Recover the amino acids of this structure.
């Protein structure tokens, strides 16, 4: 029950989503552990971008409706607090940001954190994987689609924007004296 039939249009989407969820969880865990010094932002940008592409596929298919009209118990929820805490420590100085709450309906801004966004995404993906790995593939796919539309898609889009912005500042912002020297050199060469 809950298994996707071979040849079903959903099977490929579910397999791809499962792989992307595992990649995102592995990447964020690796980054949070400090095992990728100097590559943290780039790795998170790649993982988040790839995940958003998988989410776009979820949005492009018709609504997934499980056979059973209830969500089977997937077991205890994944504790993402250690991940959130490790990322918050890593992102010290740029973890907090503000965003437009609902750009389609208002201009209200709200506080957010990059570590909170990534932990929220991880929690939603892990819940879908619990269903999927327990043989409830359709419920896993339903959960990923539902939570993409209701939470992790938006959180991933916001996180990606912040990650890209931080990386751009790190790479493009230069001290005034360095910029003036480069400008002088360019004018006199």
């Amino acid at each position: 029950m809950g298994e996707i039939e071979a040849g079903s249009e959903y099977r490929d989407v579910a397999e791809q989503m499962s792989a992307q969820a595992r990649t995102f969880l592995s990447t964020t865990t690796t980054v949070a552990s400090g095992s990728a010094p100097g590559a943290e932002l780039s790795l998170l940008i790649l993982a988040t971008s790839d995940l958003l592409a998988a989410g776009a596929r979820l949005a492009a298919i018709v609504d997934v409706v499980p056979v059973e009209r209830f969500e089977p118990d997937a077991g205890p929820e994944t504790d993402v607090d250690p991940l959130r805490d490790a990322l918050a420590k890593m992102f010290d100085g740029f973890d907090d940001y503000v965003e437009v709450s609902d750009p389609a309906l208002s201009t209200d801004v709200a506080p957010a954190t990059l570590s909170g966004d990534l932990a929220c995404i991880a929690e939603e993906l892990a819940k879908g994987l619990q269903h999927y790995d327990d043989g409830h593939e359709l419920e896993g796919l339903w959960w990923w689609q539902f939570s993409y539309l209701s939470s992790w898609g938006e959180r991933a889009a916001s996180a990606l924007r912040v990650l890209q912005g931080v990386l751009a500042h790190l790479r493009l912002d230069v001290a005034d004296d360095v910029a003036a020297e480069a400008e002088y050199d360019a004018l006199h060469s």
In short: The first helix runs from residue 9 to 32. Strands lie at 96-100, 109-113.
